[in-house]
Amino acid sequence: MSTELRELLAAIAAGEMSDDVAELVLRGLAEPSPAREQAPAGEPEPEPGPGPYPLSRGQAALWAIHADNPRASSYNLPLGLWLGDGVDPGRLAEALAAVVRRHPGLRIAVRLGAGGPEQEITDRPAEVTRLDLRHVTDGEFAVRLRNLISRPFDLEHDALHRMWLVAAPGGGTLLLLVFHHLITDGVSSHLLLRDIVACHEALAAGRQLPAAEPAAPYAEFVRWQRAMLAGPEAREHRAWWLDRLTGASTAPVLEAIADRPRRAPAAHDEGAMVQLRLSEATWSAVRDTARAARLTPFSVVLGAFAALLHRHSGHRDISVMVPTDGRPSQRFDRTVGYLINPVVLRLDCDPGRSFTALMDAVHARMAEAEDHAAYPFASVVDDLRRTSDAGAGFDIGFYMQQGVGGDQDMAAGQTVFRDALDLTQEGENDLVVEVVVRGPGALVYVKYDPARFDRSTAERLAEHYRLLLEAVTADPSRRVGDVELATAAERGAVERANATRRERPRDVTAAGLVLRQAERTPERTAVADAEESLTYAGLAGRTHALTRALTGRGVRPGDVVGVLVGRRAALVVTLLAIQAAGAAYVPLDPDFPAARLAHIATDAGLAAVVLDPDLAGRLPEGTPGVRIPLTGRETAAPAAPVARRDGDLAYVLYTSGSTGEPKGVEVSHGNLVNLLDSTADSPGCAEGDTLLAVTTAGFDISGLELLLPLTRGATVRIAPSEALRDGFALAELIGASGATIVQATPATWEMLLHAGWTGRVRRILCGGEAMTPELAGRLLDRCDELWNMYGPTETTIWSSAQRVRRNAPVTVGTPIANTTFRTAGPGGAPVPFGAVGELLIGGDGVALGYRGRPELTAERFVEDPATGERLYRTGDLARWTPTGEMLVLGRADRQVKLRGHRIELGEVEAAVRSTGEVGDVRVVVREELAGHPQLVAFVTGGADAASAVRRIADRLPDYMVPSRTVALERFPLTPNAKVDTGPLTALPLDELVRRFGHGGGPAAGPVAGPAAAAPARPAAHAGDLVTWLRETTAGVAGVPAQNIPVDRPLGEAGFDSIGFTRLAVALRERFGIPVRPTVFYAHPDLTSLAAHLREAHPGAFTPAAPSPSAAVVSVAQAGAPAPSAAADGYPPVAIVGIGGRLPSSAGLEEFWEHLAVGRDLTRPYPLERGFSDRVFPERFRGSYVDDVDAFDAQLFRISPREAAQMDPQQRLLLHAAHEAVLDSGQVPAALAGSRTGVFVGLSGADYLSLLGPGSPEMGDHFLIGNVASIAANRISYVFDLHGPSAVFDTACSSSLVAVHRAARALQQGDCELALAGGANLLLSPHGFTGLRRAGMLSPDGRCKTFDERADGYGRGEGVVLLALKLLDRALADGDPVHGVLIGSAENHGGHTHSLTVPNPQAQREVVLAAHRAAAVAPDTIGYIEAHGTGTPLGDPIEIDALKEAFGRLYGDWGIPVAPARTGVGSVKTNIGHLEAAAGVAGIVKVLLAMRHRTLPGLVDLRATNPEIDLSGSPFRIQSGRQAWETPDGAPARAGVSSFGMGGSNVHVVVEEAGKR
């Protein structure tokens, strides 16, 4: 931006120039004139001739994104404009066509040429589609528009713009334009709208079209950019951006504010947004604030967004991607195309600075960035990834733009468009805020990736953005960190959660509460262990005796006494006696190393130690404290009570310390009594309860187990030590103890469940570490109440107790009594409601501090400056949920929870360093085995440094000793040269050793420790793979293979994100493996890439020589089941008979002839049906059976009168049953009284809808004859069959569900023979009209399955029943066998986007289940009869589900995917969709194809749907007829799918007859 223009804009913003004058001056600056336009250096370059030309750098980046995910629609730009009154849609369509002709850039096609992606202008004519949606509701109208907008583009074959004129509900007409971003941007959209208006006005007035505004062609911009990038200007820009953005990223901010982490590269398949309207007053305040600061409103709104990100994330380093128009000179001002170029503004959001200062910083950063905005954003990112950070990325954006509609950016007073719909691009980034000025106000769109954000989070961000704008415009001098960001409702939720104040016992000890309870219930059982049981009276007597012994040995009030006692009743006696003597206890865990026990005793300053005699040797000589052994079971009368206050010390519990030594937490009597009093009510403990204590005394939660029941007259049963580590023993103990309450850590509950515990406990308490939703679901099946407990030791055991409900989020809930929660940022300031902050806990549970550590106490125990309340800084990261519950997310420091134990990783590292045998150490938590996290130590210093870790076991408890140690030569570093623990946590160990180990080889660096693994061996033929990769890379780069380095980054060979995308495509095509371009940044050289690919895709590079997997293939092809499959898991079911009617066919052989030659059997509705001429005025196209009214009533002993009132579907089902039985070689009469089942799929009731009230056909048989449920029962009745008899209506999957259920009934012994199938007759126009109105039917009545022309389905008729029998029984009976069902499965898609939207995961799972039941190798499946209804999105979804399912199946069998092994087709291209009878029709086609060993092709397949990607899969589209060949004489096998529109899915596996 020039200085002249920048100063002018500042003057306008400050209000120093009137709008009229400003407009004239701006026009003078913007419009070229002979005086101001600089003459070019030479003659202008001619416009490019015909032929392809390169993409611009920005276009190439969009192409790469599309190539990585062709189904994404995140770069579709929508524009919806309401036509003005009197505008002729036809005339507007002419104007639109003219505009497309006038702007060649709108007609480009993009394809991959020899030198990379390129574009070419086509002569594709403009198409304006008319759409009538007047009949739909407003809600459905919005959904339909969204569906149109989100349709992906095929960059090579589609026009990259789409235009619809939509008749809308209420009578208006909408012009909907959708552009791919490749051909337009914001400025271009305004230019196009202005041209549309101009062309329409000329056509409407009968004038010639106005001359097009002179504009440089887009190809000229591409040439200019390529020249710039090749020259010195690019080097200057590159250096400037690297200087500003090195170390910058949006990832830390997104990780802090998003609901879910990014687990994989962003797909951005779809976006979502929430919309907020800023009032006129708010927007006026924004403009006034900008004017007063001599800035533009942009600086205000972007400054507020940066402040919002800072406040919600806690990060000061904020980077935001902001678009610039990307037009480097005036000659491109009117160029239509993708010229926009984002820049990144990096801002320091110091919470102590004023908003005025932040606005100024935004203005300054934007001005600097615009001076370097000619350098493409994609190049900036590539440069950063090559030079500093391979993961650099910027996924937060901010846009501000003027809205469209009315007379904005068009001729003054235009009447073509009266208003605009609020539409915007969605899904382009993880998070984008867009401010659109509309009239006197503004709209705010918060656009987000639903894979990362919940809608409620986006809504909260939008509301807080409004609050922040209102606050800072009211007082721009306010500090950014001082603005409260919580709505009234959110403040109310926090206040309600913290309204916990209630009365509790004061100045009393836990021992005092227990002894009082003993007076009330002396004879009840108080404590029991494996050897003895104490009543309350016995417990009191033993406690009094030990109290006297303690005081007699010199223990005085205020002393600290150690407790080294095993898990028995005497432990409880000891704790109570110490408190009764006025002292505080310190648990000493017998399992701790002696050195740690000595440290605790010394640090605590123990006056005495009560111990079991057999544990006396655990304390080293010289450890302080008088030894008081527990020798007898004496009782005594009460001694004089010792007065204790709430603030007196109750116990000291030692936890892991970050400085290398454990620290003692001092807990007062008031703290402990508050906990016991509160938890007695919630979760609850009463006199009739028994609590099984399973936690060691050194773990603070044992305090609840050992003391809470005794304050309420309940019983404590102490589990012996040996049961704590044995899930089977513990499971038995839970049952034997009669426990009603059990408290344990998630790790202990997991241990129990893995041990097969199936018992039940009335109340389960789970705490000590995070409870997963999966664990919660399993525990809810084992209890009446499940409680999630949360709290650090420093706030006395538990600070919250939340009852977990099924299908509800697992949170820590709200505070217990007399406790409060707050969230704060790094400086202690409150964070916005819902933002992640450190959890601070206040109230009566906050401990006294750390023993002997005043500095640490002052650091962690702080005072709320607003209320003076004492708070504990937990170090836990947490946030409030919308319902006012607290959700804990992790740690702000390096403390971890492992199996309930709190571990400071710094203490473990300090212990390792103290050995003096390592250079440095980092300890992390890794999860090598899912669900089993463990400590892993990485050490430097020497290849043998790993052995040092073994020697820390004498200093640390077992749970703190790393399970594995890995020796490295060096640690990975961040761009700021700090140790980066991210790779140590996430990368595979082999890769870490290879990249950072000694010698750089895969075997370097020993792996040692308790769970040490042997060093990995180099994969066989690794050199071959590197050679293959080098050849492939050279082919993409267009250079000789020797020019491609194998041990240096590919970036040095000129690869950037575009090149990496092309390389990913090439690898997919050559090796059949999915590779994302981002993998090349993580594995930048071919050697590391080869290692990664071998590990990620072990079956893809199997050498041709014989190998174990080849042996598996030979077994599989012989028909043997997989090793993991049970041989009798799915008893095979024979198809012994077929009967029925199929379209235009007198029998099965005629039907096969139609299929074999590829006939389309659809035709106009046959009016020769008697009623058709009066009810079918429109002859709907479909496929129809002949002689639909033919029925031999006498054969079935039905009167003609009754037959006339029967639904023809029921009539033809009787005939189908008769024919199927005859086809099986039996006489129907012979089945009388047999256990033969009938399973019928039936949906429609067209015949019923034809007969209105008073119709002569409606007699006494009418109701029974037209109730669908009677159809199966009638067959059973007529033939006297005594097996199950049922009708299934799951819409399109009905008949295949019936077949599946019949097979299951046979296998379970419910019947001996089964008739299964379905019927579908089209006897009424209502179904056609309803389906057409719903947009489901193809306009020409044909199913164009897998074709790019797919536009809905055509309907068809059919009635088919199969006779089924268990194969072994059929063979024994000598029955004919047409084919064999060897696997089947059924499921439902659950809750999806809407009732009729398919669930691809459910489709995948049903296919997977059926084929796993079949237990045959996937490469023996020669054909899949797909559901294939012929919809543009449904077909690709089905193919993707098949790909995923078969990918897993090939993985199950350990064999490489066999490309094009399996054909995929659908009989629907021949006969349309038979709806309820579709599935059984698919089986008939498969049986006939097996009989003739021929696979029919799809009818009239012209071009495959571009959304169907078969790469890396075993599938091919069965486009034509071919012989069905099987390897090595194996039987022909096929899968058949049928998916109901309501979500009911079924798949069966069919095998050729005679092969078993």
UniProtKB/TrEMBL annotation:
Gene Ontology terms: cellular component: cytoplasm
SUPFAM superfamilies reported for this sequence? Acetyl-CoA synthetase-like, ACP-like, CoA-dependent acyltransferases, Thiolase-like
PROSITE patterns (alphabetical): AMP_BINDING, CARRIER, KS3_1, KS3_2, PHOSPHOPANTETHEINE
Q: Which Pfam families match?
A: AMP-binding, AMP-binding_C, Condensation, ketoacyl-synt, Ketoacyl-synt_C, PP-binding
Keywords assigned: Acyltransferase, Phosphopantetheine, Phosphoprotein, Transferase
Domain of life, source organism: Bacteria
Identify the cofactor(s): pantetheine 4'-phosphate
Question: What region holds the Ketosynthase family 3 (KS3) domain?
Answer: 1130-1552
Gene Ontology BP terms: amino acid activation for nonribosomal peptide biosynthetic process; antibiotic biosynthetic process; fatty acid biosynthetic process; secondary metabolite biosynthetic process
Cite the residue spans of the region called Disordered: 33-56
Q: Which GO terms describe its molecular function?
A: 3-oxoacyl-[acyl-carrier-protein] synthase activity; phosphopantetheine binding
Matching entries from NCBIfam families are given as: AA-adenyl-dom (TIGR01733)
Q: What is this protein called?
A: Amino acid adenylation domain-containing protein
What's the source species for this entry? Answer: Streptomyces klenkii
